[in-house]
Amino acid sequence: MAETKREIERKYEAGDETELPDLTRVRGVCEVLDRGVAELDAVYYDTPGLRLAADSLTLRRRTGGEDAGWHLKFPVATGIRDEIRAPLSDTLPRSLAGLLRSRVHDEPVVPVVRLRSARDVRHLVDGDGTLLAELSVDTVHAERLGEGGGATASWKEIEVELADGADPALLDTVEKRLRKAGIRPSSSPSKLARAVAETTPKEAAPARPEQAAEDDDTAGARVLAYVREQIDAIVAFDPAVRRDLPDSVHKMRVATRRLRSAFKTYRKVLDRKVTDPVGEELKWLAGELGVARDQEVLLARLRGRLDELPPTLLLGPVHARLRIWDVSRGVDARRTALAALDSDRYLMLLKTLDALLADPPLRKDARKAPAPVLARAVLKDYDRLAARVERALALPAGHDRDLAMHQARKAAKRARYAADAATPTLGKPAKRFARRMKALQSVLGDHQDSVVAREALRTLAIQAHAAGETAFTWGLLHGREEAAGAAGERAFPDAWKRASAPKPRAALAR
Predict the structure, then answer these.
(1) What is the pLDDT of residue 285?
(2) CA 260 to CA 427: how far, in whole Å?
(3) If you compute the radius of gyration of the chain from its CA atoms, what whole number of angstroms results?
């Protein structure tokens, strides 16, 4: 079973003559305890092309010390990483292998570097003996492994790691003392990064990947930069979804939708004969992820509705009924999302996206100046939205109008995504346009949420009745959702007026 630890640390250069200052002069530190020297032996794994290192991920199998086992580290922010640990074993545990899939695909991870370290450990404690931070002076010997291996490097470094629950400001005060003693922060973010740099011959250093048209100030360059950003997001949020981190499903799903929208919006830049099949696969992935995300949103709405009611109107075990309903749907939703991420179909999609970036299907407009091309594409999406809005406004209240408003909401989202992609090129007019589209999308989204909530409330009422419970509260909430839907319909015309004024065509064409 894997466990996760948030690692907050800083690294510093050290030499043979480096002397540590008196750290009891650091505010809050009352004593520095010598914990002796630990001998650590770690083998770091990566693909032959160092895909993990390129994304600042580290995977190692360590023996020695108190935390022997497999460690996979994901960067969170500068100096902060999530370390996911699994027990020591001869082969990579499945719990960690899945977290690597979006980066390595089906490439094997192989030993690339061995680090043997003599770690001289000191504990910084307060007056009660509570651990505040661990400082270690590491004497490191690195050896390159695998094909072309054999090169070695050695160095010393100081590492200060914050204890669980300690104030991060302590690291700043410790650093001030170290700097006064002439000790400077390390130029390498990790031991692995330094080992790779110092054991790779200059002539063997990997060349910078081709960026296709991204180095030119063209429409193709701007669109591809946005496409790359969304693909990177899909790859990055994959392990977060597997770890069930908050909002990860939503963020990964948004990236798939943004990418699919970009393929449609900028079809004069990227050839649809190539991108349409990819878009269908992105639609499939968003749908599989959407089961979990839609359940999250719906549950939050229903809980909020229950919280709005006075206790006298909560008749029957409504909270327990809602939990039962959520568990039965939520487990299936998570299974659906994980099954998609573990599928061969998803793996093929990731490979296809890599291939698309390596050899983008650029059309004639890709070579043109970016502003006119991107502005025309955004305005075309706006015209599409306007047609859907007019159709929805012309329909009487009812099922058909609900569907038409839902279609208008999706068109507003696509227009917003188009403007977001164009904002680096078109500047403030595109940013203002995206903001107005988001406001319209919000009104239409609230209406759609009320439609979906009514269906769920009807199901809950049926389940309650079948179990011999009163369905009064569920019926009451159904009525409130009907009222919310009606309010959304009344707000729709004014929301559209605000979204369509000033005229986007004039603003974006400047």
Answers:
(1) 96
(2) 23
(3) 28
Contact between 364 and 249 (Cβ < 8 Å)? no
Please give the single-letter amino acid code of residue 136. Answer: S
Q: Could you tell me the two tokens for 311?
A: 């206790």
Q: Is the peptide bond before 502 cis (omega within 30 degrees of 0)?
A: yes
C-alpha 270/C-alpha 188 separation (Å) is 39
Residue with tokens 């998803």: 346
Residues recorded for the chain: 510
What's the Cα-to-Cα distance from 387 to each of 327, 381, 453, 506, 509, rounded to whole Å? 40, 10, 27, 18, 20
Q: What is the pLDDT of residue 203?
A: 59
Q: Is the pTM of this model over 0.85?
A: yes
Instruction: Report the 10 Å Cβ neighbour count for 420.
Output: 20
End-to-end alpha carbon distance in the chain: 58
Among 25, 330, 60, residue whose Cα is nearest residue 178 = 25
CB 131 within 8 A of CB 122: no
Helix (H, G, I), strand (E, B) or coil at 8: strand
- Judge residue 118's burial from the number of C-beta atoms within 10 Å of its C-beta, 0-12 exposed, 13-18 middle, 19 or more buried: middle
Cβ atoms of 219 and 269 closer than 8 Å: yes
Structure tokens at 217: 């100030």
> H or E element: which one contains 336?
helix 318-341
* Intervals of the chain under pLDDT 70: 1-2, 202-215, 505-507, 509-510
Q: What share of the chain is helix, strand, coil (3-state, %, to 5)?
A: 60, 20, 25
Residue written as token pair 């299907």? 361
* Token pair for 86: 């699994």
d(CA 439, CA 435): 6
Rounded to 5 degrees, φ, ψ at 359 are: -140, 75
Q: State the DSSP code for 208.
A: P
The continuous run of DSSP H or E covering 305 comes out as: helix 272-308
Coil, strand, or helix at residue 125? strand
CB 139: neighbour CB atoms within 10 A?
Answer: 16
Give CA–CA dist 243/338, Å, rounded.
10
Contacts of residue 70, Cβ cutoff 8 Å, sequence gap at least 6: 59, 60, 61, 62, 85, 86, 87, 88, 89, 92, 93, 96
Distances (CA, A) of 61 to 40, 49, 93, 410, 449: 11, 19, 11, 47, 47
- Tell the residue number behind the tokens 């450990």, with chain if given: 121
Place of tokens 């079973």: 1
